[in-house]
What we know:
Elements: E1 2-7, H1 10-19, E2 27-32, E3 42-43, H2 51-61, E4 65-68, H3 71-75, H4 78-84, E5 89-90, H5 98-101, H6 103-112, E6 120-123, H7 126-135, E7 143-147, E8 156-159, H8 162-173, E9 185-189, E10 194-202, E11 207-209, E12 214-215, E13 218-220, E14 224-227, E15 232-235, H9 242-262, E16 269-278, E17 281-288, H10 296-299, H11 307-316, E18 330-337, H12 354-358, E19 363-367, E20 370-372, E21 378-380, E22 384-392, H13 395-406
Pfam family, one: GARS_A
InterPro entries: ATP-grasp, ATP_grasp_subdomain_1, PreATP-grasp_dom_sf, PRibGlycinamid_synth_ATP-grasp, PRibGlycinamide_synth, PRibGlycinamide_synth_C-dom, PRibGlycinamide_synth_C_sf, PRibGlycinamide_synth_CS
GO molecular function: ATP binding; metal ion binding; phosphoribosylamine-glycine ligase activity
Amino acid sequence: MKVLVLGGGGRESAMVWKILQAARVEKVYCVPGNAGIARMAECLDLDLKKPDKLAAVAKDLGIHLTVCGPEQPLVMGVADAFTRLGLRFVGPSRAAACLEGSKVFAKEFMSRHHIPTATFAVCETVEEAEDIFDSNLLDGFPVVVKADGLAAGKGVFIAPDREQALEVIRGLLVERRLGEAGRRIVLEECLSGVETSFLVFTDGKAMVPLVPARDYKRLGDGDTGPNTGGMGAYSSPDMLEPGLQRKILRHIVQPTLTGLQSEGTTFKGVLYVGLMLTEQGPKVLEYNVRLGDPEAQVILPRLKTPFIDVLTAIADGTLEGLELNWSDESAVCVVLAADGYPEAPVSGHPITGLEKAELHPGVLLFHAGTKRDEAGQLVTSGGRVIGVTALGDTLAQARQRAYAAAAEIEFAGKQYRKDIASPLPTP
């Protein structure tokens, strides 16, 4: 069986690693991949923003199954391009991917289908934002400012007061700091509680939940600094009690899937619901339409069921009855990021210490922003460089192992959080 993985980050490294554990997988290709993935799969230098070209290459290579990691190709319709050629694909259609591609669409969708979320308003000008603040619709400050379009995890801002909120809004709407992604913005109340990532596999009919995970979005310890694509995550048994999981499935996940169906769209792939567990119950912060990153780096190592079996069932519409088995171990991922991340990451710094890090018990290294230079030296090539994941019998053991291994890896300007798998502060 030949499998194609789209993407080149830590999530895709974990996906390739997990897919290759099945004996029936003959070969894995990856577009574009990275230095770590190149040790496991054949990397192809193709443009993820050209869905039709990707589909044509997959057909020529005789690919049996394709799975997409990042959101951008899905929002651009890569699933539709593969479907048109009769190719098996894991990932939602362009229409369904609007749940992540547009914050405005997602919030208005939740409103239409009575899915619990924060109070919100949409605006396209600074004057409209001022009117919203004057109306007290959002019940004071702090407020959350979200760019409508895709911004690689960097389009969400928490403003403590009106002055800072308007500064962010001007940066998005007037100065276009995020380009077209900030052409419209969502303003919403700032929810208090504990953030949790809740994901399900679905083939458009049946759905199967994954183990929950918790990620750390902000750059600095104590949830300080700018938002990033994710600085670490953990997953452990009993993160969510069964009753709460059933509530999330019944009041959030199922209404989301049936709501899309009622609007003529079937969701097929991985639905990620970013939740805030508030005193009033779980509320949706955001949707993603694929595996989270770095959440995939702690969820997939705990999956005992062959990943390729799950992906095949999603593609073929046979997910119903498939029981997922999970390890009772805990997993912690610490992301090592480049100097200057997230605003202006510096590339080209040599990376050392990986061999020592891999000797630590329970440790897995998932490459993200890495490449080989002309001399064959492993160097940094992106914002998030390597995800250091560790498994342990307890969360404390997994955390200790991850940080011990992370300390072995060196590159100029390395930055990482020291509080992954510690309690997240509430706003």
